[in-house]
Amino acid sequence: MPLAFLLRFDFNVPPPNLPHLLAGVCAFVPAKILAYYLLRLDRGWWRYFSIRDVARLALANVAGSAFGGLAVLWFAPPGFPRSVYFLDFMLCFGMTAGLRLAVRLAFEFSRLPNMSPGKRALIYGAGDAGVALLREIRQNPALCYEVIVL
Fold first, then answer.
1. Which residue from 42, 3, 57 is spatially nearest to 25, judged by alpha carbons?
2. Which of 112, 101, 104, 99 is nearest to 138 (CA)?
3. 0.90 cut: is pTM over it?
């Protein structure tokens, strides 16, 4: 929420809008935490972040922004900037998804490929099972296979 206010006001929040900033933080932070907790985004392995998790993350951000927006409408002083609702949603979704993607990428690329010559393997026509097999071969350095990609 503070970053959304900073972006809205070009990194210089005017003093008359500081009560709005405080009300926004008090409304949006608990709403987002509750939404993330209810959709179980506070647990799990980030290194297995998938498309299904992105959908849950988007749903949690929509729910958290909606509840936070309702709380702001009820409790904030009049004149709350409307653009902050959208900015907060986009920033929160982008940063949480980006953080989880960064953890997944760091985990994927942290494993050095096996440099010893291994048996060459070709995975052909296996569909989802082939993708799972390829992922296991690439993630498990103990397996000495060199997968041929065509």
1. 3
2. 112
3. no
